[in-house]
Structure to design on (163 residues):
């Protein structure tokens, strides 16, 4: 049985050279109660953010019924309408893939507080984040390494659908 503070991380090979760590995706195993609580908290926080209009309508990531695909379709619809109206369109694509890979715990807590998340909910989240440890399974040795502290969350950790 897994502790709610322990995360077991498995490395799953995506593609390419198996000797390159960048070709592996980490998969975290956490307890079922932890996943349920995370899902309940996420739903309540998203409801708070949406009902207080703290999330812009253009935000597609981590929202029900929205995805990278809906973001692209919305973008293409807008660009197409500009072109149909004979407006000039310039597009610049930036890849922020690694920029949001990790969220430091203190930055997350500060951001939640600034968006009106406080009291018991913020205390619960802070408690849930503190003292968390992980063990990573070594693909070469086929066993788990020593526990190490978790000081930031991956974006996937914040959204149940990506876990």
């Amino acid at each position: 049985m897994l502790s709610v503070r322990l995360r077991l991380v498995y490395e799953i090979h995506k593609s390419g050279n198996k000797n390159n760590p960048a070709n592996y995706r980490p998969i975290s195993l956490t307890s079922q109660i932890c996943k349920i609580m995370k899902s309940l908290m996420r739903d309540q926080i998203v409801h708070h953010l949406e009902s207080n209009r703290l999330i812009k309508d253009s935000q597609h990531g981590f929202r029900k019924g929205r995805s990278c695909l809906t973001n692209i379709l919305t973008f293409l619809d807008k660009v197409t309408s500009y072109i149909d109206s004979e407006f000039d369109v310039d597009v610049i694509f930036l890849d922020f893939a690694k920029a949001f890979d990790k969220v430091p715990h203190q930055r997350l807590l500060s951001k939640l507080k600034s968006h009106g998340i406080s009291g018991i909910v913020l205390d619960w989240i802070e408690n849930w984040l503190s003292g968390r440890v992980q063990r990573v399974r070594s693909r070469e040795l086929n066993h788990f390494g020593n526990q190490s502290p978790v000081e930031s969350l991956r974006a996937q950790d914040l959204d149940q659908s990506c876990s």
About this structure: The first strand starts at residue 6 and ends at 13. The beta strands are 6-13, 24-29, 102-104, 133-138, 143-144, 148-149, 152-154.
